[in-house]
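PROTOCOL LOG
Step 1. Enter all chains and additional molecules of the complex.
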Amino acid sequence: MVTLIETQTQDYATVTDEVSTLVDLADSPVRDLNQALHGAADGQSWTVENPGGKHSLAVGINAAASVTINGHAGYYAAGMHQKGEVTVNGNAGVGLAENIMSGKVHVKGDASQSAAATGHGGLVVIDGNAGARCGISMKGVDIVVGGNIGHMSAFMAQAGRLVVCGDAGDALGDSIYEARIYVKGTVASLGADCIEKPTKAEHLAELAGLLAAAGRADNPTEFKRYGSARNLYHFSVHNSTSY
Amino acid sequence: MTITSLTPGAPAAFPARQVEELGLRESATFDRATIADIQRAAATGVYDIRGWGAKRKVPHFDDLLFLGASMSRYPLEGYREKCDTDVVLGDRYASKPLHLETPVTIAGMSFGALSANAKEALGRGASEVGTSTTTGDGGMTPEERGQSKHLVYQYLPSRYGMNPDDLRKADAIEVVLGQGAKPGGGGMLLGQKITERVAGMRTLPVGIDQRSASRHPDWTGPDDLEIKIGELREITDWKTPIYVKIGASRPYYDTALAVKAGADVVVVDGMQGGTAATQQVFIENVGIPTLAAIPQAVQALQELGLHRKVQLIVSGGIRTGADVAKAMALGADAVAIGTAALIALGDNDPRYAAEYAAMGSAAGYYDDFQDGRDPAGITTQDPELSSRLDPIAGGRRLANYLRVLTMEAQTIARACGKSHLRNLEPEDLVALTIEASAMARVPLAGTSWIPGAK
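Step 2. Run joint prediction.
Step 3. Record the structure below.
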């Protein structure tokens, strides 16, 4: 017997910042930034200058604080993020907001591979394009991509929603479980066990909510919905070519 | 596997003894187990999935012997002179390394694969003797965290149940690249064991056959791993030791690359290391024996000048204190046990003979951990079966067993004149077979010959 996972709409982070703490990574190490952020209190605001593509910026935040990174971030920016809000005024490297639990991460430029990988909750917004494996093994995170996404995105996606305002690459949603995918543009190809599904009123409503949360004006009726055919949920000799 | 074609209570055509007396000849190539495998495959159309590690005979610690002290070496007095057993794990970079009282640790086994009672019993037993337990594919349970003084949190490709709150609660983090039973394979948990609680922890629909990834979702290769370890250190403020676990296939290169990527500890699991559910063809045919893996890993550490600085934990087929001592003499800093710990809890106990027989198996042979029908209440999520394992009594049995392993290893170390288990060295060992001699890189007993040595 299979009991499906319920999809719930989440409250994303809202941070009201008054005075911002400035950290210049040209002068201070990433380690000091992260340690300071781990001691941050709710409502605090931080601005990071000269990130220079450094890795692991603003990882492990666990407070309703806001961090603005002015420039490009390397691997794992806002990794394992909780509660707060991280904005990257630039591009982000591999594994943006990997395993995000809650809160919001917003990249104004493009994101590399594995954006929001394994995320359990929260919202990840990428205004530009995302590379391959966007939303891989996602477990409840919501992802909104303004541009295109690369191949093998939403591979083994378990729960959460992935919204793509541009096109999707090959093998979208391969081996997908219960995550929902909305794509406005074209899909190069669907992966094993991923199919197009009818878009009902409830889906239009959740899509409208996600687009609004991402600050986008796209029309929900222009998207198509994709999800699991649920044919691979039980091992069967007849599926041997799909595994 | 279990015999599917067996008719319960049916008499054999001839008693076994009579078959021998008739002079019937069994094929070495098509022996009875092989014939049963073919019949099972033909009947079901699905490959055999089972638990345990490799069952085939491979060169192992049994093929090594210690050279006790005599004229040229001084033994320690068994009951008066100290032979210490403690080990520090993870002091290369982490500010809070683990300090264990015995080098015998408990290997990663998931809640899901094991019952909550079994996980609690492992925690209780390990904590009683001052060693660590390890989570598995599926996250950390409160029972496990509560009962384990030292808890290693596995970081796996599936990232089931991975969350930063538990990461910060962990005493060490183990980045898992593979395991000895299936180097290159991902996790597997069949529907019978995906109960509501297990499914909830893994964000999966209840009752499905879980497929999980064999590669990490957000890094590929040693250069990425270095950045990934950097992220985990940043999240935990460089306090928590980070292990890298590899399934033994190319341990010389994998150990060197794990060290280069910044590991505090390298865990090498040989092909005898157990699993809860893997294809039999994978278990028996992929990976190398523990004995062959240790010298390769030690060589890599020595060449980097980091032997004993980056600690080496070895697992896969550790059963006795002699095995512990032999692994350490070959250069391990600690060992991990999985299958043996489950046996200590009550797995494959002859008291369940009737129930094993009813399932087409027998005590000593039962390996269908994927089925969730374990009469010992260990590899199951069934509430009735799970309740058969008393976690307090099970914990006591495990603690007893861990004490025996430690005392046995001390007995051997003292006989070799060593005041600490880690002082055991390859020089204390000889091999009984040419194969073991070549793999372990110690001389064949009575000779100075090591095949392959330059």
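Step 4. Note key features.
Residues 81 and 318 of chain B are 26 Å apart (CA to CA).
The two ends of chain B are 44 Å apart (CA to CA).
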